[in-house]
Design a protein that fits this description.
heterodimer; A: mainly alpha; two-stranded antiparallel ribbon; 20 helices; globular; B: about 70% helix; flat
């Protein structure tokens, strides 16, 4: 307990430098803007920003990327409220009551509620992370190869089963990521694998190129279909961006209930902002005295999901920082950028470089304050950015994607791979194959294989270790259960549909 | 053909190719008894199984509840496809120009190409302004703020 506070003080010292405050601000603003623009989410934001982090020290880099991440949570809902188009997936729920509020002439109030709910949700979650990070990291220090393998299996399985969509296609996506991760020289034996004769593939496929391709290039390609979408709003319709005391009374309960919920969902792999907001919304609707108001502009319907998605983005930092395991596309990209800088997040990070995780945690306090300031008084000029035509925005994102790829190895030959991943991602989304499992498998595949082989070596070539270590057993059972649960849920849903047809 | 059918066939085919490639790998167990083949082997089998499962499930599914891929493009779809193809080719050409021409010129040219492609020819003034300022701002930003060097090419002053 006291340890955590001491470390937080260290983090404060680290975060309160002019450089870091500057980058929190830049990251937060960019995140807000990118989150606000329909079609571009936090993963794209972080991917496009990767080149900016090359020249930075790891703490500043992570602070900036985290700023983009929760900034996007603030920004995503601006578009939901004003134009009924969510800026990113986790802002969909905010449309349901935010937009009706705006149509009732309460746009300003909805924006204020969403900003305050995001702020309170984010701040409380920072308190959670301060006290949870160290115990979790210390626990994770005890993990040997078998536990690590089981944890990776569980996380990757959960990414598929807990997200929506076809289970089989999710696992196929995982396999694609694994296949890409095995390309290159095998670290343990030096055997060349699957390079297809290309010398440039010896070192494997740079996962950052893959991520920029999948999240920036693919997104631009997708948006090529809606070049003339016009997201302009007139600021005169927004009204006063503030909350009254009565509004606070009504919203505080939902905010305080949704924050821990969102945080827990964020910590779990595979869930992320979208599910956090859905859960928070439906919980509030169930316990509210007037559920009939939900969907027609209920303030609680804006406050709850907004608190939840910010809380989940803070919660997602726990597995990333303490175990080096990202639970979502956005945190995967952050992990990739950190590894590029030579930093491997995980339990040892807290003992060897405590200033990095604690600097990031402390920076979230500043970041949330800055974002509140950006999103309350400055919201009107900011939403003007929605007027930037797609026709100008998309080429610029494409330009940044290529620049980022080039700066990684100073080699333009990576552009082939970038384009390849951009097109591959587009084909995958046309076939409804989810992309996040592949990205996670791509970045975690190497670790998974290594822990698998190490555990087998310790077990004299038998998988005995996986089934004798208690933590490993629990995690593997959880992985199997999450698959079984999804199968049962799906077949029940199907049975209900066929029953409905018969009746 | 339905989306799931294509995905299933693709999974089986890729899994098969990957399996053959895995079996052809050199076995090397020095220092690591498991060797470099085991993990890819498991993945290959898993992918083939997943593909077969998806195919079997799709064959059992009634026709009306399948989501079908249409290979025939609408005129608008054709335009989108052309944009994607041109962007991809432009990106690769950009790669060849970067070192000889330098960052400033090649980026401006690449951006100009994209802007003309996406933002129509009519708004040529806007296109030129955006392209040149993008190239300049990113160059100055990276060189001064982040101390990263970008190739100067023929503008080696």
């Amino acid at each position: 307990m006291l340890d955590s506070l001491n470390y937080l003080a260290l983090g404060m010292h680290e975060a309160f430098t002019a450089t870091n405050i500057f980058w929190v601000l830049i990251g937060g603003i960019l995140g807000t803007v990118i989150g606000m623009l329909p079609g571009l989410g936090p993963a794209t934001g972080v991917a496009v920003l990767i080149p900016v982090t090359y020249g930075m020290n790891p703490t500043t880099a992570l602070i900036t990327m985290a700023g983009v991440y929760y900034g996007a949570m603030f920004g995503g809902s601006r578009a939901s409220i004003l134009i009924n188009t969510p800026g990113d997936a986790s802002a969909i729920v905010t449309c349901w009551d935010g937009y009706p509020m705006a149509r009732n002439g309460q746009a300003g109030k909805a924006l204020a509620i969403s900003a305050w709910a995001s702020f309170v949700g984010g701040m409380i979650s920072v308190i959670f992370i301060v006290f949870l990070a160290l115990p979790v990291a210390r626990f994770a220090l005890k993990f040997g190869p078998a536990e690590m393998f089981a944890l990776l299996v569980f996380s990757l399985t959960a990414t598929v089963t807990l997200s929506k969509g076809n289970l089989l296609k999710g696992f196929i996506s995982l396999c694609l990521g694994f296949i890409i991760s095995t390309i290159g020289i095998d670290a343990q034996t030096g055997v060349m694998r699957f390079t297809m004769g290309f010398g440039s593939l010896q070192d494997g496929i740079d996962f950052l190129v893959a991520m920029i391709g999948l999240y920036a290039v693919t997104e631009v390609f997708k948006n090529y279909a809606s070049l003339d979408a016009n997201y302009g709003v007139s600021t005169s319709d927004i009204g006063k961006v503030s909350m009254t005391r009565a509004d606070w009374k009504q919203c505080l309960g939902p905010i305080l209930r949704s924050t821990p919920l969102g945080f827990i969902v964020g910590v779990l792999p595979g869930m992320g902002g979208t599910i956090a907001t859905l859960l928070a919304y439906s919980t509030e609707k169930q316990i509210n005295k007037h559920p009939e108001n939900f969907g027609k502009g209920a303030m609680e319907g804006v406050a709850a999901p907004e608190a939840a998605n910010n809380a989940s983005s803070v919660g997602a930092m726990i597995p990333l920082l303490t175990m080096g395991i990202p639970g979502s596309g956005t945190t995967a990209v952050m992990l990739g950028a950190l590894m590029m800088l030579g930093i491997q997040p995980g339990p040892t990070l807290f003992t060897q470089h405590p200033e990095i995780p604690w600097g990031v945690i402390a920076s979230m306090i500043i970041g949330n304050l800055l974002l509140l300031a950006i999103n309350l008084p400055l919201v009107k000029p900011l939403v003007q950015l929605l007027k930037i035509p797609q026709r100008i925005l998309l080429p610029m994102i494409m330009g940044l994607a290529f620049m980022g790829t080039y700066l990684m190895n100073y080699s333009a030959s990576d552009f082939f791979l970038l384009v390849l991943f951009g097109i591959g991602g587009l084909l995958m989304s046309k076939l409804d194959i989810p992309i996040p499992p592949m990205v996670l498998a791509l970045i975690l595949g190497g670790m998974l294989e290594q822990s698998f082989r190490q555990a087998l070596t310790i077990g004299n070539g038998t998988p005995v270790l996986f089934f004798t270590k208690p933590i490993s057993i629990v995690l593997l059972v959880l992985a199997v259960l999450s698959i079984v649960y999804t199968l049962v849920k799906d077949s029940r849903a199907k049975a209900r549909i066929s029953k409905g047809q018969a009746a | 053909m339905s989306k799931n059918m294509i995905t299933g066939l693709f999974a089986v085919a890729l899994g098969g190719i990957y399996l053959i490639a895995t079996l052809n790998l050199r076995q090397q167990t020095m220092g690591d008894p498991t060797g470099p083949k085991a993990f890819p082997f498991i993945i290959a089998i898993l992918l083939i199984l997943l593909g077969i499962l998806l195919l079997v499930k799709e064959i059992k599914t009634p026709q009306e509840s399948k989501s079908i891929v249409f290979f025939q493009l609408t005129p608008e779809g054709k335009k989108v496809l052309i944009r994607i193809v041109i962007t991809s080719i432009a990106g690769i050409i950009y790669g060849f120009l970067l070192d000889p021409l330098g960052y400033l010129i090649s980026t401006a040219v690449f951006m100009l190409g994209l802007m003309f492609l996406v933002n129509t020819l009519v708004r040529w003034k806007q296109n030129i302004i955006v392209s040149i300022s993008f190239s300049l701002v990113t160059y100055i930003g990276f060189a001064t703020l982040l101390h990263l060097s970008l190739p100067r090419g023929i503008l080696s002053f």
